[in-house]
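Quick one, T. Sequence first:
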Amino acid sequence: MERLASGVDMSKVSFVGAIWVEGRALALGQFANEASGFQALQQALQHQQVEQGASEIHMVVEPTGGYELALVAFAYEQGWLVSLPNPRQVRAWARGIGKRAKTDKVDAQLLAQFAAQRQPPAQPALAAEVSELHPEGTRLLARRNDLETMLRQEQNRLGELRQRPGVPKSVLASLEQVIQALEQALQEIAPRGYPAIQQHLQRHPYLLEHRKRLLTIPGIGPKTVLPLLVLLLRCGDPLGALTDGQGNDKGLTALVGLDPQPYQSGSSVFQRPTISKMGDGEIRRLLYMGALGALRGHNPLHAFYDRLVGRGKAKKLALVAASRKLLTWSWAIFASGTVWNPALFAA
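Structure tokens:
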């Protein structure tokens, strides 16, 4: 056996491990999602590796809101191969082989079977400076997103309560105080001139240069550029963590879930084409909002949108196509290391 195929189903406080050996799943048990649990899993996998005569360990983990990041980092330290497949792809594959039950134990065994039978490509570890900007982590970008979400919620509450009669002034004052504190915290971590993210970029000039080039593209703004930059670094040169350096614009579009999905059966059954939505929903949202913002100016993306609408395309469909165009332009700028040239992309 060359690889010991293992699967891990994650949750916030614990995870379940399993392996696939000789056509059947073998449960390894439940472990705490902390250092002691990682070490216990390591001992169980190493024991099975020796027993099965495997040369390496391949662990498949479904991304689960960042709960898996510590275990994935531990796995890379051990030299294990790690795959983080899209959950929708795994679910579709499971339905295809007749698997319908869903429990933590079943999911772990299913992932182990997926590792053995599908053999998904292993993903190299991100560079440390890129991990600092990873939107699924618990660090800079994730903290900024958390603060923005909490700020919007409190602002909405304040606006609603101000319209209601009889609300105590102390309640309104409390909301205003929390909003002020959140705004201050957001200023300290926001990318425009504030220290946390800006200083991190200054320490790594190649990240700063990529960011500057991407910001010249119409529709790419401060909120979009860093998550997009992390995605590009994961998919293409110089790191290529998701595609082993072999990424292209079509693969990137599919990864984000902006690839078109036509529906046709025979000569009479047609449905409106959609996108797969099998990738990162947050990136899709940011690109969509970026495309929407680009329509306020005169630029190649706006012209592209107008051409589609002029040919009879629905406005929402044209915006989705503009989001996809924005992604492919970003890839071209990133992969070539060149600056944005409106005349080049106008066609």
